[in-house]
Every structure is written in structure tokens, then in C-alpha cells.
Amino acid sequence: MAGKIYPDARAALDGLLHDGMLIASGGFGLCGIPERLIDAIVESGVKGLTVASNNAGIDNQGLGKLLRTRQIAKMISSYVGENKEFERQYLAGELEVEFSPQGTLAERMRAGGAGIPGFYTKTGVGTLVAEGKEIKEFGGQEFVLEQGIFADLAIVKAWKADTTGNVVFRKTARNFNVPAATCGKVCVVEVEELVEPGALNPDAIHLPGVYVQRIVVGAPYDKQIEFRTTRKRETV
Prior knowledge:
- With 236 residues, the chain is an alpha/beta fold.
- It has a single domain (5-217), classed as Glutaconate Coenzyme A-transferase (3-Layer(aba) Sandwich), CATH 3.40.1080.10.
- Helices cover 19% and strands 28% of the residues.
- It is built from six helices and twelve strands.
- The chain has helices spanning 9-12, 35-44, 64-68, 84-91, 102-113, 177-182; strands at 5-6, 22-25, 49-52, 72-77, 96-99, 118-121, 135-138, 141-147, 151-162, 167-168, 184-195, 214-217.
- The strands form two sheets. Strands 1, 2, 3, 4, 5, 9, 10, 11 and 12 form a nine-stranded mixed beta sheet that branches. It has a three-stranded antiparallel beta sheet with strand order 6-8-7.
- The radius of gyration is 19 Å and the shape is globular.
- The mean pLDDT is 93.
């Protein structure tokens, strides 16, 4: 271990995990998910977790692995998606789910990272999302109060990082990773490639190193495809 760099995911999470903690996880479906860190959490056996993430991957992939092992007690998500085990546990009352509209969830993470405990939004007013929450009127319209997310731990996946923790995400894999990273008391990033300081364009940094406490190289990765869509080959 040198500075922020750790030899593997297990070492990068050492001393950070405990039962009942709140984890913010980046990614969207199977795109940009912290695979190695999720595997290490599964291996740790920590339980009673609350996980804030757009969704829970798919069956036995991504956060779906933690659902299979029953280590997650509550999901804060915007989408149940194609994860049948997620759906089954929720409908059976085995898993608590706090549904949050997608943009609201991203903003709740961003707000937590900015130290903002709450904000008002029009999204969800008049729906089940607003039940039990404060409603306030601005300019003759109703808005619902949403709370910022302050996570014990943030786990994210990046394309490149330098050894000081400056991070670059690749295309749509940027998704929830930036707001998730900023809202954690401790942020652990797994990357495909580690470079020396100065190798990254300063104007292209998506996540400054000040937010990152620990880094692990997770490569090589196998590209997982959530939906494989094909068409018949055209005959000439």
C-alpha cells in the first residue's frame, strides 16, 4: 500500500465495513459498477446494509450478488429493473425499498456531497413518493422536501485515475458515479488504469482527488451485457 493505492479490493475496504451501514454505490444497471468492491463486500459477510444506488444490477450480477446473500436490508433506488430477486424480496416483504425518482436520487447524493441536508423539488408531488414528507409552496406551486444522502461509504468504478485520486470516467459509465462518490464519508474507487500525476488532462477530471481516499486497480474486466439485441444478417 502506497498513499491512496491498495493492492486489492479486500485491502481497500479493510476497516471500513460494519453491519447496518449506508453505502452509496455508483453505476447504472451493469454500466460503471464497482464489481471488485461488491465482490469484496460479499466476501466480508457484513449484513443489514442500506444501499443507495439507481438499481441493484441484475440477478447475481453487481449488487444482485448482495441481494442473493441477503446482506442488503434496504435499497434506496429509482428502478427495480430486471432483477427478479430484487422484485421477489420486495414483494415478499423481505427487503425494504425506498423508491426515489431517478433525478431526485442523483440530486440527493449530490446534495449530501455538498453538505446540503435537504432540498425542495416538484418531482413526486401528489404521488406516493411524497407521502409523509413536508410539502411547501413556492410561487404558487407545491414542492416536496427531499433529504440529502450522507453515506458511510461510497464505492465507484472509474476508467482512469492518477495516484493522487483524480478520476476520469468513460462516457456513460460516468452516470451515478460522481454524485455517489462525493456523498460518502470515505470513497473507494476501483479503476481500469492507474497513471502518474500529470498524465490526465486537468480540464477533463470528473472527480477531484480530494473526494477519494482509497484506490484499487480492478482490471482486467469482462464486459457484461444486460440486454443482448441482435438482428438477422442482411443477405446481399
